[in-house]
Amino acid sequence: MTSKRRRSKRVCWRHAADATANVGLRVLVDNRFRMPKPLTESEQQVFLAERHVAVLSVARGAGRAPLSTPIWYGYEPGGDVTFFTGAEASKLKAIQRAGVVSLTVQREERPYKFVTIAAKLEKIDSPPTADQIFAIAKRYLPEDAARWMASADAATRGYELVVLTFRPERWQSEDYTGDMA
């Protein structure tokens, strides 16, 4: 009597490197591996324009790990990325030295998806206008709280804000939607 092996249809997640040396997740479904697909340019821009808490990373110098921090940001497809920070924040000093950052946004629930951009610093508005602050804050706060934040001065807030504007230069993305079949 010979035994037959049953093929499992369950999904198994594994780390693997693809042929282009990008490390990503492969999914094993019905004994076939499927790789995530990159988003189109339009899909990347729409995803970045959705409300996400981004992770901003910036170099801090030789021998030091990059500074990575969550941020609120503003973005409209085809435009620049903006965010605000304290005028004395360590990330502001690192950004001014480096002149470039990377920014990652992701969907943390299945189906997973992410967009990462490399972006060049275009300008720093100090002090920013209330409209600049409100445009970002309204994405993350109730309208009354966003209006308060935009109208508050440094003395009320306890610190001075600056708004940084970045131009996206390179995009990377992966979409795991097809892996959920």
Task: Explain the layout of strands and helices.
Blueprint: E1 12-17, E2 23-29, E3 32-34, H1 41-49, E4 54-58, E5 67-71, E6 74-75, E7 81-86, H2 90-98, E8 100-107, E9 113-125, H3 130-137, H4 143-151, H5 154-157, E10 161-175
Antiparallel strand pairs: 1-2, 2-3, 4-5, 4-8, 6-7, 7-10, 8-9, 9-10
Helix pairs in contact: 3-4
Portion in strands: 35-45%
Terminal CA distance = 35 Å
- Gyration radius (Cα, Å) is 21 Å
CATH arch. level architecture: Roll
In total, the number of strands is 10
Number of distinct helices = 5
What's the name of the CATH homologous superfamily?
Electron Transport, Fmn-binding Protein, Chain A
Descriptive account of the structure:
By secondary structure, the chain is an alpha+beta fold. It has one domain (37-180): Pnp Oxidase, Chain A, CATH 2.30.110. It is built from five helices and ten strands; from the N terminus they run E-E-E-H-E-E-E-E-H-E-E-H-H-H-E. The strands form two sheets. A seven-stranded antiparallel β-sheet has the order 5-4-8-9-10-7-6. It is globular and about 55 Å long. The chain starts with 11 loop residues before the first strand and ends in a 6-residue tail after the last strand. Mean pLDDT is 86; it is low at 5-23.
